[in-house]
Amino acid sequence: MPENEPTVYDLFDLHGRVAIVTGAAGWLGSAMARALAEAGAQVVVTSQNPERAVAFAATLPGDGHLGLEFHLEDTDAIPDLVAEIVRRTGRIDILVNNAYGGASAPTIDTATAEDFDRAYHIGVTSYFLLAREVVFHLRQRQAPGSIINIASMYGVVASYPNAYTGMDINSPPNYHGLKGGLVHLTRHLAAYWAADGVRVNAISPGPFPSPRIKKTLPAFIQRLEAKTPLGRMGMPAELKGVVLLLASDAGSYITGQNILVDGGWTIW
């Protein structure tokens, strides 16, 4: 090995770094937060429910993890949130913009302007403002950082109408619109923040249905599996590797990318 070349262990090691994961106690966020903690990061868990945030943070391996209340709608609170995290941890190095809570699945025929306004506010505007506040902190420290936006395969491709026909579930147009916008916003921010040493990437999960959906809509799951080359649904742990890659020095030459973790869904 060439002198001073980092080992694989060194590249993925996050000891001494602080990571914010919004919505970290949720179905996918919990796996990503755990991956960062397992790699040594101090993780700041945010949730709309402060008790849930604190309880989940306590389950993570390692010491010093925090659970804080944060509502995506309350963008005015973002500067204070970041300042509080810096006060309590001393730094921020990684942000995983993961939390989402849009309108309750409006169809194309029923979606309203309010559905779109709320979806964009919490899924694009909030992500941008939180990322920018973290970048302000990184600039002040003159330190590199990693911003990871959790988008969706539905920000890249349309859904199959026949996957939803006759089911008590649909594919909301506001969700598709905001996730497509988030993918491109990621590229734009990567271009402008590269000079600051900040990498900005997106992860677009494919079909990762929650246990509730699996239990209540087994026929829907079968339809999704039929459209996935790997023939099965994703499990949250299958996002751990990619989030660690993008958060760590192992991904130091990756920016402006949207990595699809979709079982091959988008190859067809």
Which architecture per CATH? Answer: 3-Layer(aba) Sandwich
Give the structural class: alpha/beta
CATH topology: Rossmann fold
CATH class value: Alpha Beta
Total individual domains: 1
Structure overview:
The protein has 268 residues and is of the alpha/beta class. The protein has a single domain, classed as Rossmann fold (3-Layer(aba) Sandwich), CATH 3.40.50.720. Helix content is 42%, strand content 14%. A seven-stranded parallel beta sheet has the order 3-2-1-4-5-6-7, sandwiched between helices. Helix 5 links the parallel strand 4 and strand 5. Helix 2 crosses helix 10, helix 4 runs parallel beside helix 5 and helix 5 runs parallel beside helix 7. The radius of gyration is 18 Å and the shape is globular. The model has no long low-confidence stretch (mean pLDDT 96).
How is the secondary structure organized here?
Layout: H1 8-12, E1 18-22, H2 29-38, E2 42-47, H3 50-57, E3 66-69, H4 78-89, E4 94-97, H5 113-141, E5 145-150, H6 161-164, H7 173-193, E6 198-205, H8 211-216, H9 218-226, H10 240-247, E7 258-261
Parallel strand pairs: 1-2, 1-4, 2-3, 4-5, 5-6, 6-7
Write a concise keyword list for the protein shown above.
globular; alpha/beta; 7 strands; 10 helices; 268 residues; single chain; Rossmann fold; seven-stranded parallel β-sheet
